[in-house]
Amino acid sequence: MSNVYLNGEIIPHSQAKISAFDRGFLFADGIYEVVPIYNGMPFLFTAHMQRLDRSLREVGIPQTLNHADWRAIITQLNSAEPLENSVLYIQITRGSEFPRNHLPSANLTPTVMATLSPFPPPAGAADAVKVALLEDIRWLRCDIKSVSLLGNIMLKQQAQALGAVEPILHRAGRITEGASSNYFVVRDGALYTAPNDALILPGITREHVLKLAREHDIEVHEKAFSVAELYSADECFLCSSTREIMPVGYVDEHQIGNGQVGPITQMLIDLFRQSRPNCA
Ligand code: PDD
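Above: the input record for the complex with N-(5'-phosphopyridoxyl)-D-alanine. Below: its predicted structure, written as tokens.
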């Protein structure tokens, strides 16, 4: 039986209930976080917690749990149902109130939920995938990890219909990110990714890849690429907590490099896997 942390209790999924007037349900008025756990150890935990705190601050939802509380919740969830490798999903909404009103009342009690689900960490040779270039139709605060993901969902559905595993998004020809991933391109041995601004989620994996690259003397630039520059890049990959590093061979019908996993991408995949807590 799977369990869920809900407002201070660990209970079976089937018993987890929230109000029909929860603002997360009515308005998508909430934020979330996704933390990979390898071999029982949350990876890049502090960075994920700091992003969670920032998301809460940005939308004005009070922080009711600190980092130590979250560590304790992970331990409790894991002992209720031991999983070697898992993904922690955290969702915090502003709380519930009736009648429905866009403007929230002061002093609502946030609804806090968390689950662990099985996560098979990528292993073996990575394959280069196809992505679809689509116009970024999302709001202009993509730096907040908001549960308002309708734009992302619509874009993922469009990409799937085009036979792609993920959309790669652009605004007026400037590449922003994937629908649930950040992007990198390699040109002449240097690594490029979009700058951390309001148009992208400040990915924890993105930051870790930048760190690994710098430590291994790969030149890095935080500068948005144009669509034309993307098409003529030597290598491209997407990254996220659950996909780690996912090489891109094609953007629609445009082959990137030789369409295979490039040498710098492979080097970063190897470094990334070495940096994860030991996992099966
Ligand atoms: N998504 N950009 C967007 C829009 C994302 O949703 C995500 C992650 C990322 C990568 O961030 P990170 O490296 O911190 O996982 C970038 C998570 C995995 C999700 O929505 O499930």
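Notes for the reader.
The first helix runs from residue 23 to 27.
The longest strand covers residues 30-38.
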